[in-house]
Amino acid sequence: MTSVDVELGLTALAAMLSPTTLSFSVFALVLGERPLRTGLWFFLGAFGLTLIIGVVAAFALGNTAAPSGSSETPPTWVAIVDVVFGVVLAIYVVRALRRPRDPKRTEDMIEKMSGLASSPAIAVIAAGATLANPGGFIPVALKDISQLDPSAGEYIALWVGFAIISLLPLLAALLSLVVARDWATQTLHRARGWLERHARTLAAAIILLLAAALLRNGIVALTS
Hints:
Layout: H1 3-16, H2 19-30, H3 35-60, H4 76-98, H5 103-114, H6 121-131, H7 137-147, H8 152-166, H9 168-179, H10 181-223
């Protein structure tokens, strides 16, 4: 396992534990009378958009971030991007942790999601694509995969894996609703409270680890 593999894994974990994505996913399942229908369309919207971005990036980016020839050092621009991403993520975490929790923001999220269950399927898909995609972690993941210089099949497997991991809590909740709906519903309501108390701290820890990995890889590449 290389440092880039670790970086990609941390990126997927950070996307999965994003408080915004987790909160919107939980609200999509607990605020309506038909959680399975809402959650499924919500998942398909987020998953579909992530796959589309990956397809476009495969043609636009390709393996341009991979080391050339027999060298194991990535191009200079990749090292610079690593350092920039690392610094930006570290600053983002520090600012987010210093900012007090905003109950109004949660109320706005609940209000936004409350009418989703009764909306047409296309509206739920659009909401999922907009609110539950991996967001700012997508460029980092694309860079990491390009650095690994994968074949077409490997690229597909890596990107689909990233998309699934980033949405794993939502996917697991949907499967739980199919297997044991009452238990899953109760668990989701408890998860909502836990997320409001702890999600930000957990996500911050993972993002800081990712920032450290990016800074380490970028500095090593620039100084080697």
